[in-house]
Amino acid sequence: MIMRIFQVRTHPGKEAEFARFFHSKAIPLMRETEGVVSILPGAARPESPTEFSFVMVWRDLESLKAFAGEDYQSPHVDPAEAGLVAARSIRHYDLVDA
Length: 98
Fold this sequence. Notes:
Blueprint: E1 2-10, H1 15-32, E2 36-42, E3 51-58, H2 61-68, E4 85-94
């Protein structure tokens, strides 16, 4: 399994608008995506009000590529979030069975 960590930093003043997108669109989309085993969405905190994240566990690389395409190592941008986000990053890891 593959752990995918996606982090976003919003433009200052866009936190509330991004939070609405995050809760109403991004989280439901990932919960319904084929190949996603689990998600852990992380909302902004008072000490980091512009930062949001997703930890996703994917069944396999094929499932991830079916969702993100061959360029799965680049963060994908939903048109609804494009003007809200100042920076984004994505990292992938092999999940270790604890």
